[in-house]
Amino acid sequence: MRTPKVIMPVIISLVLLFFGSLAFASGGGGKKTHEMVIIEGGEYVTISGTIIDSHKEPVGEAIVAVKLNGHEVTAVETAHNGHYVTNFMVEKDAMHNASLDLEVRKTSFSAKAMHFPGSDFAQKGDHYYLAEDVMLDRFLGSAFWIATVVFILAYVLIAFELLHRTVAAMLGATMMLLISYTIGTINPDFRIFSFGRAISCIDMNVVLLLMGMMIIVGILKNTGVFQWCAYISYKLAKGKVFPLTVILMVFTAVSSAFLDNVTTMLLLTGVAIEISISCRLNPLHLLMPLVLASNVGGTATLIGDPPNIMIGSYAGLTFMDFVMALALLCVVGMVVLTVYVKVVWGKSYTTAQATISNVPEFTAELKEKYKIYDMPLLTYGLVILGFVVFLFLSHGYWHMEVSVAALAGASVLTTVALLTKKVDLLHMIEKDIEWPTLMFFIFLFILVGAVQEAGLLAVVADWILDLSGGDYLISMTLILWVAAIMSAFVDNIPFTATMLPIVAYLSTVIPGAENTLWWALAVGACFGGNGTIIGASANVVTMGIAEGQGYKISFLGFMKTAFPFMIISIIIAQVWLMLFKPA
User: Fold this and answer.
1) In this structure, which CATH number among 1.10.3720.10, 2.60.130.10, 1.25.40.10, 3.40.50.2300 belongs to the domain 43-136?
2) Is 447 within 8 Å of 151 (Cβ atoms)?
């Protein structure tokens, strides 16, 4: 029976909606810990302000306590924007000679106390006011070290694939919360963050955008259009292997820019292997160029690569911002990649070319095998996908999140497919929506939010700032190369999530940085993913499918051919960012 298999995806969908509603609800004002005592004929006192850290970032969930003549009268918790408002009452004329103390405390910060005589308050009738912003200094205590250790362990599990990355991220996020609510309840020094704060760290724009695009591509896959594109590529190349490789690389790069590179490689890998076998070419010599092209092409747009989706959502950058800043760089990267592919695998293509005895016959065979078998559904799908791409291009004008565009297209296309009975809904929910990937993002956001709350990211940001001396060129170079090298050896998704708050801070304190540091992070994370077999999700997916069909490549074998191109592409990006400095 199929129904039981759908239970888990449905539950996960409800969880996503629940998380989203909690994230929205948790953005409200601070919570009171004391009720205001009503004193008949007394005077009202209001103290308000914002709590910030040394990076001028708001500090949420800090406790602000007020003592009147040595006795605590009220305490409130700051909202996630760091704002607090506290009200209490005193007896008539008590404020004239009153002594008030404001104490602010939070785990991983040094507590701060300030003294105010009653004469410092503004007065209007029987109402006294004081506005006081407070800056807290970081304190690297127990919560910091526990969060750092758990984060590193989770990172190791993900990077070396000791556990499935979704399980590793879930384990790390759960441990952060469990420690906060057990040991942290006994001793507040061990409290990393709250459940509400954890939920607010989840970027639902990223999660829902990925879900929407998975649905759209899953339905289009049922038309045979991607296999047909492979046949057309072979036909255009007239049976010549190197031109075929170049055409498929361009198709892969463009598709990756508008669909995302993981989805593109999932659809093309099987077809590429079949064509390679038919041409008596080692499939790895075709798949490797396609993987490299997918990571280069995916860099060009907001939705092309998961790191870009995360950067765009966090920094408020639009689809066109990415296109204007990075598309031409990616075109240059593709030209260089074409030359590189010819140098590295050219001999294999020449040998394979000599084995194709009857090109017209083989072309006819591919035409028969790779047909578009549902033209009406393809027509509906392309029209709807075109509208979604239009919304991507113009979402800045509409002030609309890109996830809204993706979900709109997914919902309309699903409705059309169901009404025309072209798609099995249960199969689509089970197979086409990659639930482990979506859950990985959710737990990853919580994991990174924990180390941000504990102060690890602030320490890293200060280190980069000190090392660069506040110089733009050094900072850009550090971010670009650190992102590239790190992304080559660990999945670029968790690395990018870690770097987001760091780059946001550096962009505000380094003169002339503007958006360029975001482009350095995007290019470093996406191009750097080409360095090793585990550098990007597209690499892992493609080589996994190839291994399943008997074509395995080792970690060092992949790195031997891919890493040099990664270094070349980063050097090109370095020169590009120095010369043009895209805004």
Assistant:
1) 2.60.130.10
2) yes
